[in-house]
Amino acid sequence: MTAQSSSSEIAKKVNDFLEYLEVEKGSSPLTIRNYRHYLGRFMDFLSKEGIRMNLVDINPEIVRQFRVYLSRLPGYKHQGTICRKTQGYHAIAIRSFLRWLIKNDFKVMSPDKIDLPKVAERQVKFLSSEDVGRLLNSPSLSTINGKRDKAILEVLYSTGLRVSELVRLNRDEIDLDRREFGVVGKGGRARVVFLSKRAAEWIDAYSKVRADHFKPLFIRHKGKIDPAVADEKMRLTSRSIQRMIKKYVRKIKLTVDATPHVLRHSFATDLLMAGADIRSVQEMLGHKNIQTTQIYTHVTQRHLREIHETFHGKGN
């Protein structure tokens, strides 16, 4: 096999793997984009280093050289190098690719030979109940945009939805009487999501001031609305909701840089501090693995320590 065909073989199999993620595994477009980026960077490395190889030639030494290469790449806006967490994502992508190749009977290196880098324990940012209240009450209710933003904030905090799940919601999917709806989250996992009474009331209030018939639950309200515009052109994006929350964070001068994901963290933390069991919280967040949900136990353990130190022995 020539060097040209060797490179083509790896590129073809990477493409087949990405199609598998899309069609058979039901991975999100963002996940597929990330895997394409990480594996594409691996192939770029092979090309830049003049390494011509077949699939069977991928070995621990090649992977080691790639990881050294990664550790020296400039980071975001060329500030330092790319972080260890991002380097780890590249290793995860190669491991997943090798695992898929083995599943399809290719004789390649065992993915277990690739160790993942140790990274600092993930820090969970969340809002205090006081800060949550301030943020939820920050939109002006005199405009349709303000009513929409109020509904968005209430829904995010009452459900723990990912922002990508929120923007995909349509009006006809929400049962306001039962205060529930279904979503399909990461990895194609479906779950039922429950609304607080307040969140349901604000969705209803926002819906009643809308004169349009667009399908998305949350849409943009800028300039004159043309009823002929396609539904998807009107749908808010994840980025627009992130910007909206940052606007209110600045408005009320929050000390925590709140984001949609910080509201998700706040939802989970609030449940656990109130006594909810971790398995139920896992289901409500749509986590595949309980280990993902366990990042919140560190927060609640600190909370319990504070209670212990505040109250223990006070009655003696």
UniProtKB/TrEMBL annotation:
It is found in: Cytoplasm. Residues 8-102 form the Core-binding (CB) domain. GO terms for molecular function: DNA binding. GO terms for cellular component: cytoplasm. Keywords: Cell cycle, Cell division, Chromosome partition, Cytoplasm, DNA integration, DNA recombination, DNA-binding. NCBIfam families: recomb_XerA_Arch. PANTHER family: PHAGE INTEGRASE-RELATED (PTHR30349), TYROSINE RECOMBINASE XERC (PTHR30349:SF77). This is Tyrosine recombinase XerC.
